Request: fold
Amino acid sequence: METMTTFAPGDGLKTEKMPGHWVLARLGKRVLRPGGMQLTRRMLSALGIQYEDDVVEFAPGMGVTARLTLELSPASYTAVERDEAAAKIVSGYLNGRRQQCVVGNASDTGLPDQCATVVYGEAMLTMQIEEIKRQIVREAYRLLKSRGRYGIHEMCLMSDNLDADAKSETERALTGVVHHGVRPLAISEWRSLLESEGFEVQSVDTAAMSLLEPGRLIRDEGLAGAMRFVWNLLRDSPARRRVLEMRSVFRRCRKQLGAVAITCSKY
Ligand SMILES: C[S@@+](CC[C@H](N)C(=O)[O-])C[C@H]1O[C@@H](n2cnc3c(N)ncnc32)[C@H](O)[C@@H]1O
Reply:
């Protein structure tokens, strides 16, 4: 498989076993969140990042949102990324003492209390079990100063009333093709999680979960990026199989699944 950078997340893993987001990244896909760039832009706009803000991003992945944030010239930018290769890619976009990407866990960053005015993370809570989701939200709260803002952009279940069997069947189908836990919550459950950790919800915005649909691919990656992705896909049959399997399950579950961006404040 062609790698676009010196450091490729998923190195050392077989394509058949690799988490789906790294299969996509190795094919050249940069945008790995369910609601795409449009929902990201709306989340950033709701967060209202200004030059005086100290921003912490959890799990920047390939650094696409990091670059949008840096264009806003915040006072500081710190990313916390678990994957070493991804952290190296993100570090390549940073310069200056007040921009850094540390390899670490968003549930326990080691950053000081109240060091941030804005924290956000995309497509990183859905993949955690319930207790770790809560620890990460709690960590965001600890990092934020009073009146600080937190934004999430995650996969969601479109119904509040999905019965337990349907919910676990959806999780099982998604986890089976992504090869990593995929545990979306209903929008009301995402809200409750944030509120139960002390946040006040400010905005809720949704989009379709069409990560692997052609129109979204072009909107997110640009025409050249989408063509490069398809070219890489055509030349790599194990990766193609993985992507088609994921798309087929996303399509099968499309009525149940969506993407949500929620912003909230610490008071
Ligand atoms: C699906 S990708 C999303 C990447 C990027 N946020 C995006 O939306 O394009 C998930 C990312 O979360 C990172 N990640 C998962 N759990 C994490 C944790 N507990 N702490 C820090 N990073 C984490 C992974 O390494 C990966 O970069």
Observations:
- The longest strand covers residues 144-157.
